[in-house]
Amino acid sequence: DVQMTQSPSNLAASPGESVSINCKASKSISKYLAWYQQKPGKANKLLIYSGSTLQSGTPSRFSGSGSGTDFTLTIRNLEPEDFGLYYCQQHNEYPPTFGAGTKLELK
Amino acid sequence: QVQLKETGPGLVQPTQTLSITCTVSGFSLTSYYMQWVRQTPGKGLEWMGFIRSGGSTEYNSEFKSRLSISRDTSKNQVFLKMNSLKTEDTGVYYCARDFRRGVMDAWGQGASVTVSS
Question: For A27-41, how does the pLDDT look when each residue is reduced to its tens digit (9 = 90+)?
Answer without folding.
Answer: 999 999 999 999 999
